[in-house]
Amino acid sequence: MTFIREHATRLYAVAVAVLALVAHYVPALPSALILSVAAAVLGTGEAVQRVENGKTVTALQERL
């Protein structure tokens, strides 16, 4: 779990890139599936942003 917290943004970027490649190279996927995965990716992006913001706040508080 520590690895995921420390590298959340990198893992998110890799997952989004893989999903984009799959959506591009597998044209038989239904558009509803692609749209639902896109919505899930946006929600995950929000979670990743909150983790990164938390790390920034913690670092700023340690500095003061």
Structural description of this entry:
This protein is mainly α and 64 residues long. 88% of the residues lie in helices and 0% in strands. The protein contains three helices and no strands. Helix 2 runs antiparallel to helix 3. The chain is elongated. The mean pLDDT is 89.
- Average pLDDT taken over every residue: 89
Structural class: mainly alpha
What is the N-to-C order of secondary-structure elements (H for helix, E for strand)?
HHH
Quote the distance from N terminus to C terminus.
Answer: 28 Å
Unreliable segments of 5+ consecutive residues = none
Number of strands: 0
Radius of gyration equals: 15 Å
> Approximately how much helix is present in the residues?
over 70%
**Quaternary organisation:** single chain
Q: How many helical elements? A: 3
Major sheet description: none
Broad shape: elongated
β content, as a range?
under 5%
Can you summarize this structure?
With 64 residues, the chain is mostly helical.
Give the key terms:
single chain, 64 residues, mainly alpha, 3 helices, 88% helix, elongated
Strand and helix layout:
Blueprint: H1 2-6, H2 8-25, H3 31-63
